[in-house]
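Long-time lurker, first post. I've been practising inverse folding by hand and with some scripts of my own, and I keep getting stuck on stretches where the structure tokens seem ambiguous. Below is the full token string for one chain I'm working on. Before anyone asks, I'm not after the true native sequence, just a reasonable design that respects the backbone. If someone could post their per-position residues I'd love to compare against what I wrote down in my notebook.
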């Protein structure tokens, strides 16, 4: 568990992980629900979808906004150590990677859910499958489906290109169509690793004092043993 009283950076959320930077594509309903405070009106809000659909991004954006409002939150994920304990001063509880919870963490998550519900603290959660298909104990699985459930869809290619272009503009670098095409054909069309490649490419370009081109991208990959 990571208690998050102040800095969003405690969970690794950079400046890009906000509601403003999320590219919704077909996921506008989920974004609007979280952004407009829908979490406060239900016992749980659950996001599900494949890797790269933005589940963790939205959860981190929700935590960021909670902190910006002067409130506190608790973040739990399947890899976090036990024990998991609720702080009554929190205004939000988040559980990520629900589909990966082992038996002990399922027990801890259920206890968190019960304590949060008793105190009226909203809970937001995410996993790769819908609540009905979660490989969890029955009482936890059913409770995760009590509130609003949103299925997140991957971005279409045009939306992915727009997201990469926007991030490149934010970094002040020019990303040509040729470089974009190479990235989208060479790597999995998953926005998170593509953004990571863009970050590495930006650093490599600055270190070598060269503009970003396909030959430079190939050079970076070759030096990293990825070509």
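-- Answer (accepted) --
I ran through it position by position. Result:
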């Amino acid at each position: 568990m990571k208690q998050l009283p102040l800095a969003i950076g405690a969970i690794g959320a950079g400046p890009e992980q906000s509601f403003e930077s999320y590219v919704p594509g077909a996921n506008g309903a989920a974004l609007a629900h979280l952004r407009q405070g829908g979490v406060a009106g239900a016992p749980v809000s659950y996001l599900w979808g494949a890797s790269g659909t933005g589940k963790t991004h939205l959860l981190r954006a929700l935590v960021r906004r909670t902190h910006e409002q002067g409130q506190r939150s608790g973040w739990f994920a399947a890899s976090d150590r036990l024990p998991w304990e609720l702080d009554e001063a929190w205004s939000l509880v988040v559980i990520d990677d629900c589909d990966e919870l082992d038996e002990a963490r399922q027990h801890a998550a259920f206890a968190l859910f019960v304590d949060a519900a008793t105190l009226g603290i909203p809970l937001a959660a995410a996993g790769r499958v819908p609540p009905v298909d979660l490989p969890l104990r029955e009482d936890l699985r059913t409770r995760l489906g009590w509130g609003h459930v949103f299925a997140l869809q991957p971005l279409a290619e045009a939306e992915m290109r727009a997201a990469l272009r926007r991030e490149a503009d934010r970094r002040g670098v020019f990303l040509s169509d040729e470089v974009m095409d190479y990235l989208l054909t060479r790597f999995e069309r998953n926005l998170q690793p593509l953004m990571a490649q863009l970050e590495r490419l930006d650093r490599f370009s600055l270190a070598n004092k060269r503009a970003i081109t396909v030959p430079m991208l190939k050079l970076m990959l070759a030096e990293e043993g990825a070509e």
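A couple of notes from the structure itself: The beta strands are 2-4, 44-48, 73-77, 92-96, 123-127, 148-151. Residues 131 and 145 are 5 Å apart (CA to CA). Happy to go over any region you disagree with.
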